[in-house]
Amino acid sequence: MHQELMHSTDDEILEVVDENDVVVGLATRKEIHQKKLIHRAVHIFLFNSAGSLFVQRRSPRKDTHPLKLDSSAAGHVDPGERYVDAAARELYEELGLRAQLEEVLRLPPSEETGFEHVVLYATCTDLTPLVDPDEIIEGSFVPPQELSAKMSQNADDFVPAFLRLWERYQGRRV
């Protein structure tokens, strides 16, 4: 793919954190990803009143996991930003929605999460998301059982962190 078509924010500055989520410095997004430095991210699960989850397919211009299925919205935490504020910002930027967010769970950094401390938030609305075409090429509400079946049948079609978050989310609801 031509570099000019890639949606990249390589020069974006992010906080580097340690295993305990304590800030230890700053680096560019590109450096963080190349050196596998630990940093922060949020994911948002947007449900409708029927209990279906909005699942997005990432833009082909994304520099990580292009065209993969992902959480309703997700993104990095900016320097000095609280996780909940990053989640609210990403929900608005990617889906054009503002909503009350509930922290659901946290994942420690690992290869699976892209070396990110991940905080998952959830919310519910019957409003129609207005997807940002630079971020998302399509999205739809998917019933939980159907989503779990799709993940079992074709895990390679999903962002790894989303797979892990969904597994943990489902496990905590038993």
Short structural summary:
By secondary structure, the chain is an alpha+beta fold. 25% of the residues lie in helices and 31% in strands. The chain has helices at residues 29-35, 83-95, 144-153, 160-172, and strands at 13-17, 23-28, 39-47, 53-58, 69-70, 73-76, 102-107, 116-124, 136-142.
Give a verbal description of the structure:
This is NUDIX domain-containing protein. Residues 37-164 form the Nudix hydrolase domain. Keywords: Hydrolase. The chain is an alpha+beta fold and 174 residues long. It has a single domain (3-172), classed as Alpha-Beta Complex (Nucleoside Triphosphate Pyrophosphohydrolase), CATH 3.90.79.10. It contains 4 helices and 9 strands, in the order E-E-H-E-E-E-E-H-E-E-E-H-H. The protein has helices spanning 29-35, 83-95, 144-153, 160-172, and strands spanning 13-17, 23-28, 39-47, 53-58, 69-70, 73-76, 102-107, 116-124, 136-142. It has a 4-stranded mixed β-sheet with strand order 6-3-8-7, with helices on both faces. The chain has a 3-stranded antiparallel β-sheet with strand order 5-4-9. Strand 1 (13-17) and strand 2 form a beta hairpin. It starts with 12 loop residues before the first strand and ends with a helix. Residues 1-8 have low confidence and may be disordered.
